[in-house]
Amino acid sequence: MNFAVIGQNIVKLWLKYWDKFLITGMEYTLSLAALTVFFGAIIGSMIALMRMSKIPPLRWIAAVYTELIRGTPMLLQLYLFYFALPQLIPFLNRKQYLCVAIALICNSAAYVSEIIRSGIQAVDIGQTEAARSLGMSKSLTMTEIILPQAVKNILPALCNEFIMITKDTSLASTFFIGDLMTQVLLVKGATYLTFEPLVIAAAIYFVVTFILSKLVALLERRMRRGDIR
In sequence order, what are the residues at sequence separation of 6 or more whose Cβ sits closer than 8 angstroms to the Cβ of residue 40? Predict the structure, then answer.
């Protein structure tokens, strides 16, 4: 392996295709990740509340959904949603990005629901009992007492979920929706180079996730300082 030639090829590819990698690819990747975590958090919150519900059918539905999603590979889910959704909903026909986004949202919701459920359950039960003894309703206790404290446990984990989803969107390149790995495949086809585009993509993924992880660490430190005060 001639590392000098590989290095030269990487520089040439970057100079020629940096906009495909950095602008087009990461724009699709980050937008897909943000969309997934945003709607995944909303749906995950509902699933978490269903799992903590005293109504057995709601608990069973939420438990089955969570275990089914967590027990099957994401790539398999992407295939199922990509091919099945247009058959069930004709509006989604030829809307590859939307089908993939829905699949990722449904996948993320299962994991986020467990994050939210564990964050809520981490709040001391005594606080719920104290609030109820003061005459507060269940909904008011949840919104005014439990959730504000649970957010401190949930927020860093949600940020880490965003980092994980950012990397997992690489599976979407299977359907050529424009993400970073899709751009790698396009550059590979145009230049007949395999290794060099992958190195560039790996470097971009590393830089993006490294920056995001440092921001999450900063957020966690600030939240800990807030607890000390």
Answer: 104, 105, 107, 108, 109, 111, 112, 161, 165
Please tell me whether the overall predicted TM-score, pTM, comes out greater than 0.90 for this model. no
Quick: pLDDT tens for 201-218: 999 999 999 998 998 888
Lookup result for tokens 């008011």: 140
Tokens of 15: 């100079």
CA distance 61 to 50: 8
In CATH terms, 3-222 corresponds, of 3.10.300.10, 3.40.50.300, 1.10.3210.10, 1.10.3720.10, to 1.10.3720.10
User: In whole angstroms, what is the distance from residue 170 CA to residue 81 CA?
Assistant: 16
Question: What's at 204, amino acid-wise?
Answer: I
